[in-house]
Amino acid sequence: MNIVYSALAVAGGLALAAGILTRATDDAPAPLAATGTAPVSAGAALVQVRLPAALSPGAVLGKTAFDARCAQCHGDNAAGRDGVGPPLVHRIYEPSHHGDMAFLMAVRNGVVAHHWRFGDMPAQPGLTDADLAAIVAYVRELQRANGID
Prior knowledge:
Helix content: 40-55%
Structural class: mainly alpha
CATH class: Mainly Alpha
Distance between the termini: 44 Å
Number of helices: 5
Order of helices and strands: HHHHH
């Protein structure tokens, strides 16, 4: 009997964990294509991003660098691009899960796909540490404006 109860407890725990990990929150950006709606078109934004009222001076520089080097894959305002690259304004990239150093390492070394099905991210040469600090500041300000702390 203990085996049956243990199996049920494990199954219940897994179901609870799955619900917690996949539930949508009001604080996280909402996917643009919800269940029962038309699919997102290729290259379209994957999440809705609320913009902050104003950006810090460092984030303004980061937006310029992001738009020039990152937006082609990660979308305008880091909203992702369907079939191309993931949104960075997403709870997966909250600071407690992907710290600022993770962004720097991704740009410097590339990343093997592990959260998304977009394929590996190649290294992005030609960005200075100052460029990366500004880009991270921009992304973090977008995240905070969308309830991702």
